[in-house]
Amino acid sequence: MTTMTVEPRAAGPAARGPTARPSFLTAPFATRTWREQGYLALVLLLAPFAFGYAVFTVSLTAVVAVTVVGLFVSGTVLLGGRGWGSAYRGLARDLLDVDVPVPAPYTRPRGFWRTVGSLLGDATAWRALLFMFVTFPLTLLSFVTSVVFLVVGLGAITYGIWYRFLPPQLGTGGEMHVGAQLGPSYYVDTPPRIALAALAGVLVFFCWPWLLRMFTLLFRALTVALLSPTRASLRVAELERSRTGAVDDADARLRSIERDLHDGTQARLVAVAMQLGEAREHLADGGDVAQAAELVDTAHASTKDALTELRELARGIHPPALDSGLTVALETLAARSALPVTVDVDPGVEAGGRLASALESIAYFTVAELVTNAAKHARATGVYVLVERVDTTRSGRGTVRIRVRDDGRGGARVVPPDGSGLRSGLAGLAERVRSVDGTLDLSSPAGGPTVVSVTLPTTSPSGRA
User: What separation, in Å, do the N-terminal and C-terminal C-alpha atoms of the chain show?
Assistant: First the structure.
């Protein structure tokens, strides 16, 4: 089967694999632990400035809300929250291995009032300000606590080395002690007590990474929750990509039709016109009637070939068999295929009424494209097509599932585009399926079989059946 090229769907930097979790004994010495401590140190440096910026933005918005120009200035300041969000996403990506997708960039609409509304209503900026508010106390608590655990643990472990440099203290019994005092008359200055302090330090030191991990998990959760794109923005971006892909696919199909008409049908009709003109000249000049008849016969045959090509082009735009329903169209497609094709259509697909015409066309051309690929590229000996209705989706719309399976050599794979702007047939097919909220899944291990599963809603995104 041919290689399928699909546009990438994710926006933003590529995701990195998570760092392997260290064990309890290796956690204090792991690079990941010290990177997380470094993250807390850096966000501590940013926290006062970020918190101050957030407070200033909210205060400015409240103060200048009664003025028109002030609203524009406040919205511009609010938009700066996107920069803070980008900085925090970069820290999380580099030090916490959390690669949060970048929200869609701000697009300024036309018109002053629309611009002001879009600035003050920018959800990405407001969520970034909320992140700066919420993480300010968390930053202070997490850094102080983690540093205290680290310093206490290391200090207790090395206590036996540096305690001698502590100033002498007079005990309650009149004796002098050189060591830390942990109570009215408890001094850590004997070998057993020093060993006990070192043991406690080891315990605290090895617990420090897991306390640190708890705080960074909170930062990870807040980063993903507040600094990632919202579902609505992701949906809008996906629809924009699908619309662009559908437009490109439609443009490519129109260009293909234009090329076929220009290079095929038009050339034949030009030849017919020349042959008929030559025959007319023969007859007008009293020339050879037999030669004129031969030219007319040739023109007649070329005309029939041109009509055949026009029928094929029309069938590629809208198969006439679709007028009788998807089931009849697929059975007609199977009968004309170069491979044995078995079509199994669930009666429930059209039991509640026919699908939307756009969805029927997509379903038909999906099967046609896959059957053609199986015949040309997969070296298959047969194709099985299953069309069935499945449970309704969360949005309440029913779903039709199409499974096309061939027994070919397999090996089909999805690869990113090469940047040339060219799109393969399957890439356009995938974009067309996504343009109506459908999905396309490919399974094609080496040696086969190749199975392509396509799900389509029973109604178009516009809600028309």
Answer: 34
Smallest CA-to-CA distance from 326 within 301, 353, 300 is with 353
Inter-axis angle of helices 123-157 and 68-79, nearest 10: 40
Distances (CA, A) of 222 to 7, 138, 217, 418, 465: 30, 11, 9, 36, 42
By residue count, the chain amounts to: 465
Query: Nearest Cα to 438, choosing from 369, 359, 365, 371?
Result: 359
Residue 44 vs residue 76, higher pLDDT: 44
CA 203 to chain centre: 44
Joined tokens for residue 328: 């009849």
DSSP 40-96: HHHHHHHHHHHHHHHHHHHHHHHHGGG-HHHHHHHHHHHHTHHHHHHHHHHHHHHHS
Q: Is 422 or 200 the better-scoring residue by pLDDT?
A: 200
**Alpha-carbon distance values, 91 to 40, 43, 103, 131, 235 (Å):** 10, 8, 16, 14, 26
pLDDT grade for 11, boundaries at 50, 70 and 90: very low
Quote the pLDDT of residue 246.
57
Q: Where are the domains of the chain?
A: 27-229, 239-317, 321-457
Please give the Cα distance from 138 to 219 (Å, whole number).
Answer: 9
Radius of gyration of the chain from its Cα atoms, rounded to whole angstroms: 36
Q: How many CA atoms lie within 13 A of 227 on its CB side?
A: 32
Is 58 in contact with 106 (CB distance < 8 Å)?
no
What confidence tens digit (pLDDT) does each residue in 125-167 have?
A: 999 999 999 999 999 999 999 999 999 999 889 888 887 788 8
pLDDT tens digits, residue range 296-324?
888 787 787 777 767 666 666 667 777 78
- Gap between the Cα atoms of 40 and 135, Å rounded: 11
| Domain spanning 321-457, CATH architecture | 2-Layer Sandwich (3.30)
In the chain, the percentage of residues whose pLDDT exceeds 90 is 22
